Amino acid sequence: MPKIISAKTIVTCPGRNFVTLKIETGDGVTGLGDATLNGRELAVESYLRDHVVPCLIGRDAHQIEDIWQYLYRGAYWRRGPVTMSAIAAVDMALWDIKGKIAGLPVYQLLGGACRTGVMVYGHANGETIDDTIAAAREYVANGYKAVRLQTGVPGMSDVYGVSKDKLFYEPADSDLPKETVWSTDKYMRVAPELFAAARKALGWEVHLLHDVHHRLTPIEAGRLGKDLEPYRPFWMEDATPAENQAGFRLIRQHTTTPLAVGEIFSSIWDCKQLIEEQLIDYIRATVVHAGGITHLRKIASFADLHGVRTGCHGATDLSPVTMAAALHFDLSIPNFGIQEYMRHTADTDAVFPHAYTFEGGMLHPGEAPGLGVEIDEDAAARFPYKRAYLPVARRLDGSMHDW
Ligand code: EZ4
Ligand code: CO
Question: For residue 174, which of 17, 328, 322 has the smallest C-alpha distance?
Fold first, then answer.
């Protein structure tokens, strides 16, 4: 058996922080897992280093499901983003090892390809509607079939999804959480204007998406969904926080705009009701934050039974290791919907050389055995950890809102 003889964490900041787990077997086969939890990176790193790695030594790397169960049930303290990101990292690394030993890309181990490639969407953003549309045109010119649109809101200085550097939007950009101001009224007026202008300028062939980023109440989300309906968005994302899954019933009663949610979910229990009652159309749970490939497959199978498709989170805080794992998963499941794709910086790509490729609006994980991603540890060491937080949002009267 391929016995696990060592495992270590690697923290690096090639433009942003990443936590990576590297597992090695007695035969010298190595596997990588991403454990990055934006703004709380070191909590997961400690969880792995101090509490998980000692339990892995000597185990059979082939026993992916058993090790998953061991870490999930064995902790006693179940679920939550820290635990599930740590388990995810182990899971990814073990799939990577299994693929390398088999000489097969991971998607082959998951049942083989169900499609020729994975449709992705890019992020177009700008301070004004015109700037956003200009950015979207660039994506379309580069072959993208789907583009997410976010725009500045007049009277608000910082808006989620809008950045000065259009190519590499990175919200975790300050040493302590930046304080931003939020006005639901102003936002609710601009978003439909953006979509009206975008359809006029870009036509109807391209899929257009929008991320509300947890800012609305269910009835407000119903209103916005209705206002966006004439422009046929591919989805409205994270319209309202989803701790209360029943809240989505209210949105559903008011709009036919497709709903996506779940980038912050850590297990199937965060979306069981949403899926069972068909309150959403796309589940956004990801490999790194929802317990790895092993657990995400369960979520996807459950979703498939209820006509819900996947739309995995794929922002820059998910490392190339997660991106590769997501692509193997996306390629292999029947109910794939779309994959988010924010390009990483050149420094990040240099630290994580990878086999996945982009062509004609589609990503493909490549044919390298395992996940098809490596880590250049010398390069990683040149970029030490740098504390970075996501912003917070306050309403005009100073009270806290959801960022
Ligand atoms: O704000 O990943 O859809 N993408 C997003 C992201 C999230 C970040 C938080 O870490 O909502 O931009
Ligand atoms: Co989002």
Answer: 17
- Residue 398 inside a domain? The answer is no
- Which residues have CB less than 5 Å away from ligand 2 (the ion)? 211, 263
pLDDT in tens, 263-292: 999 999 999 999 999 999 999 999 999 999
As a whole number of angstroms, the distance between CA 299 and CA 241 comes to 19
Structural domain of 242? 109-368
In this prediction, residues 303-320 reach a mean pLDDT of 98
Classify residue 373: in a domain, yes or no.
Answer: no
Answer whether 171 contacts ligand 1 (Cβ < 6 A).
yes
Cβ–Cβ under 8 Å, residues 331 and 113: yes
The residue whose CA is least distant from atom 9 of ligand 1 is 38
> Rounded to 5 degrees, what angle do the CA atoms 87, 92, 93 make?
100
165 and 38, same structural domain? no
Residue 335 lies in a domain: yes
- For a substitution probing ligand 1, which of 317, 338, 390 has the most ligand atoms within 8 Å of its CB? 317
pTM over 0.90, yes/no: yes
Instruction: Starting from the CA of residue 314, give the closest ligand.
Output: 1
Note the pLDDT of residue 155.
86
Residue 354 appears among annotated catalytic residues: no
The one catalytic residue among 123, 210, 213, 313:
213
Active site residue 214: no
Q: Is residue 85 part of a domain?
A: yes
Residues 98 and 131 in one domain: no
CB-based burial of residue 200 (10 Å sphere; 0-12 exposed, 13-18 middle, 19+ buried)?
exposed
The CATH number covering residue 33 comes to 3.30.390.10
pLDDT band at 15 (very low <50, low <70, confident <90, very high): very high
Please tell me whether residues 135 and 70 are part of one structural domain.
Answer: no
Mutate to test the pocket of ligand 1, among 41, 235, 263 (most ligand atoms within 8 A of CB): 263
